[in-house]
Amino acid sequence: MTGRITVRAEALLRWAATVLEKAGASHPAAVATAEALVDANQRGLDSHGVTQLHFYLPGLKAGTTRGDAEPTVETDLPAAAVVDGHDGLGPYVARFAMDLCCSKARSAGAAVVGVRNSTHFGAASCVSEQAACQHCIGIVVSNSDPGMSPPGALGPVLGTNPLAVAAPFRHEQPVSLDIATSVAAQSKVVLAAREGRAIPAGWATGPDGQPTTDPTSALAGAMLPMGGHKGFGLAVIIDILAGCLTGSALSPEISNDPAHPAPQRTGHLLIAISIDRFVTAEHYGSALERLAHTVHTAPRAPGTDRFLLPGELEASAARRRQAGGIPFAGVTASLLAEIGTTHGVPFPP
Ligand SMILES: NC(=O)c1ccc[n+]([C@@H]2O[C@H](COP(=O)([O-])OP(=O)(O)OC[C@H]3O[C@@H](n4cnc5c(N)ncnc54)[C@H](O)[C@@H]3O)[C@@H](O)[C@H]2O)c1
């Protein structure tokens, strides 16, 4: 496909769920996974949208990701639990675990759920925002396959281990921070390589450990940590929380190579805090309004745009894409068309 195409979210959701089912996912796992991927596209997080099928499908076909797996609760305490994902699709496993976490938080005030034996769950905010929809503050961390190094290392050492926090705000859009611990998510480099774009300086080093703007060289090298030692330190902590504490693999042990599928044993740690067990809804709402007002009205140097809260960019992308559909560059549309042809579900739908 040469030109850019646009697809409505509803059609994309049906398409992605059908592809996943044809690849062996159960209906609920296929729908939950498709919803997470399309939600990411809808909010402008294209690196974690339906192009992730390119990574998810080989594991499903090889049976290293178990499309029919049902998560089970292995440890069940009043304010904590450990869930085993049994190598199931990450978005389905994480959704189950966050629902459990929120229901415990509603009775205990706050709860923490560790998840073992999961797989890549897409954009972390799909999981943290699930808590915000249930009047909780949601905190989510996950480890991921190795893609980041401390400056000076040759090749990746740890995962780009993401962190997301979502806090309910006004009606529909939470304040939602969703970040890799690298300067940028590695999937953005995958997308740039596919679309033939250079990446910004400062994102990555090549296999020789030297800075690069060539996405192919960056993929053979490693992403740089966000804020140097701070991002790297945070990635270490996330591996402790999501890996050591849950009984999952550590990020250097996780494989996400579509050419050689293997069980990922990815770990997540989820926290839900029930706001109204701490303060009244009125207090929380008015305090957050004051915070938002301070950010939005902060004095600006000439030429500086309005300051945004985390999540506002994605909320405006979602409004635009709800009205106008989700755009795909020609080369990405071709990849999806290839996936569609292989599974007998034509793309664009
Ligand atoms: N599942 C995994 O293993 C995995 C691993 C790494 C990253 N990821 C995902 O990759 C995605 C992208 O991560 P990233 O680090 O490249 O994100 P990013 O650098 O684009 O940062 C995104 C965050 O910064 C906020 N933001 C962006 N511009 C802003 C501005 N001008 N003012 C205020 N806030 C602003 C956004 O609202 C959002 O919360 C995330 O969804 C993350 O969960 C997933």
What features would you describe in this structure?
It is a single chain. With 349 residues, this protein is of the alpha+beta class. It folds into 4 domains: 1-68 and 326-349, Hypothetical Oxidoreductase Yiak, Chain: A, domain 1 (Orthogonal Bundle), CATH 1.10.1530.10; 69-182 and 225-278, Malate/L-lactate/L-sulpholactate dehydrogenase, NADPH binding domain (Ribosomal Protein S8, Chain: A, domain 1), CATH 3.30.1370; 189-221, Hypothetical oxidoreductase yiak, domain 3 (Wheat Germ Agglutinin (Isolectin 2), domain 1); 281-309, no CATH class. The protein is 41% helix and 18% strand. The chain is built from 11 helices and 14 strands. Strands 2-3-4-13-5-8-9 form a 7-stranded mixed β-sheet, sandwiched between helices. The chain has a 3-stranded antiparallel β-sheet with strand order 11-10-12. Strand 8 and strand 9 form a beta hairpin. The radius of gyration is 20 Å and the shape is globular. The two termini are 14 Å apart. Residues 45, 47-48, 120-125, 142, 144, 160, 162, 164, 176-180, 184-185, 188, 308, 310-311, 313-314 line the site of nicotinamide-adenine-dinucleotide (NAD).
